[in-house]
Amino acid sequence: MPKLKPDTQRARREHILDAAGACFARQGFHRTTIQDICREAVLSPGALYIYFDSKEALIAGLCERDRNEFAQRFAVLASAPDFIEALQALSQHYFFDDPVDKQRVAIDMGIESTRNPRVAEICRAADAFCLDSFEQLFQRLKDEGRIAPAADIPTIARVFHVMGDGLFWRRAIYPDFDAKAVLPVMVDLVAALLNPIPPLAANARSAAPAIQKANV
User: Fold this and answer.
1) Residues of the chain above pLDDT 70, percent
2) Does an H or E element contain 23, and which?
3) CA–CA separation, 83 and 85 (whole Å)
4) 78 or 210: which carries more pLDDT confidence?
């Protein structure tokens, strides 16, 4: 059997992940079988097992794909001149633009992690990556004099994380939940905790140590 080209392999892998995500969203991780995913992907079990050897491996693949996408979007947030505005745009994507099925799968994975150690390991690693990203960003902003936080950075990052979890849950579970009314208030609360410093004041703060050093 001829070996597939790398681009074809990547496309097939993405196709399998799409099929797995659709099945997990429709009937949950526990009820979904490999056979269900094969039918969705129109592939034989043998073809699927070339890429993923279990449902847990499929979850790891979905999390890896989401983490790579998040990292790309987060890089834009980290370099944005107005990080609060960029934070709201990032939240807009994940809470409105993303299909609600993705959030339902994420919630289902969280529930499955309470009884499946492998899924728990995958979910916790993904959660830690997201939390650490925000914690490092907020610390960088503080070090650059762009925020004067009202609490310690790890706590603020966790508060933001918990708020995000709540919006994920509400949007996934309740069809009539009006996230658009809640998100601006949530961002305002986070902004109040971070306490952004106007650019001119931030520049003055960052320049002060250099001026002091020059005068010594």
Assistant:
1) 90
2) helix 6-27
3) 5
4) 78
Q: Which two tokens stand for residue 128?
A: 């830690």
Q: Would you state the structure tokens that stand for residue 57, as one six-digit string?
A: 């491996």
Name the token pair of 43: 């592939």
**Which phi and psi angles does 147 have, rounded to 5°?**
-140, 155
**How does residue 1 score in pLDDT terms, banded at 50, 70 and 90?**
very low
pLDDT at 68 over 80: yes
- Asked if residue 208 has pLDDT above 60, the reply is no
Query: Tokens in use for 104?
Result: 């339902």
| Rg of the chain (C-alpha set) | 21
Secondary structure letter of residue 5 according to DSSP: P
Domains annotated on the chain, with CATH? 1-53 (1.10.10.60), 63-215 (1.10.357.10)
This prediction has a pTM of 0.82
In the DSSP assignment, the letter for residue 10 is H
**Chain centre to alpha carbon of residue 156:** 17
Q: Look at residue 5 in the predicted model and tell me its pLDDT.
A: 75
Compute the distance between CA of residue 25 and CA of residue 40 in angstroms, rounded to an integer. Answer: 12
The confidence band for 143, taking pLDDT boundaries of 50, 70 and 90, is very high
- Cα–Cα distances in angstroms (integers) from residue 166 to residues 7, 101, 136, 180, in the given order: 38, 16, 22, 14
47: which strand partners? Answer: none
**Measured torsion, CA atoms of residues 90, 96, 101, 105, in degrees rounded to the nearest 10:** 40
Angle at which helices 117-143 and 100-112 cross, to 10°: 120
Tally of CB atoms within 10 A around 1: 3
Question: Coil, strand or helix: which one is 179?
Answer: helix
